[in-house]
Design goal:
Blueprint: E1 2-6, E2 9-13, H1 18-21, E3 29-31, E4 38-40, H2 41-45, E5 49-55, H3 64-75, E6 80-86, H4 97-107, E7 113-114, H5 127-135, E8 145-148, E9 155-158, H6 167-176
Parallel strand pairs: 5-6, 6-7
Antiparallel strand pairs: 1-2, 3-4, 5-8, 8-9
């Protein structure tokens, strides 16, 4: 295993069996939001369609958590993994991770995977958003959405105004399931 330190903490590049089938940008372990537990993004997403969203607790788009949770429940059994990446890049995230967790888990009942707060744009972006920015577009605001194919190679990007329950986003998800 190769370990490296980023702005959101220690990431581990895994040399396990998942590495051969996992795109490099998902070949990381990320700390779960307000937890000491890590999640291996390769294990979580391998062969599955993925919806990645950069989130914030105090944004006009924060109520999208509710529709994201609905998507998660509707499509999880069909092979969709939803992952939220809280970020303060647009100055609308709690400074205290416990408060971010409260917004997600208590206020909106989020059960999909949320990882620890990290940068999602610019040179300090975490490895996932670095790849998404280089191969699609970096987020211009909170709640940008990225639909990724099961092989991790096809990325469709949607801005904040595209609601999680929109026909446009649902068609993109269904196209990669």
């Amino acid at each position: 295993m190769i370990k490296y330190l980023t702005a959101i903490g220690l990431f581990t590049l895994s040399s396990a069996a998942f590495a051969t089938n996992c795109p490099d940008y998902l070949n990381v372990e990320a700390r779960k939001l307000h937890s000491t537990e890590n999640v291996n993004l390769c294990e979580l997403t391998q062969g599955k369609a993925v919806l990645i969203v950069n989130t914030a607790s105090h944004c006009g788009f924060t109520p999208q958590f509710e529709a994201l949770e609905t998507l998660h429940k509707e499509y999880a059994d069909k092979g969709l993994v939803v992952i939220g990446f809280p970020s303060d890049d647009f100055f609308q995230e709690e400074k205290d991770e416990a408060k971010t967790a409260d917004v997600c888990f208590i206020n909106y009942g989020v059960t999909f995977t949320m990882v620890a707060t990290s940068p999602v744009k610019g040179s300090s972006a975490n490895s996932v958003f670095k790849y998404l920015g280089d191969n699609s577009a970096e987020p211009k605001w909170n709640f940008y959405k990225y639909v990724i194919s099961g092989d991790g190679q096809t990325v469709q990007q949607f801005n904040s105004r595209v609601k999680p329950d929109s026909d446009e986003l649902k068609k993109a998800i269904e196209s990669v399931l």
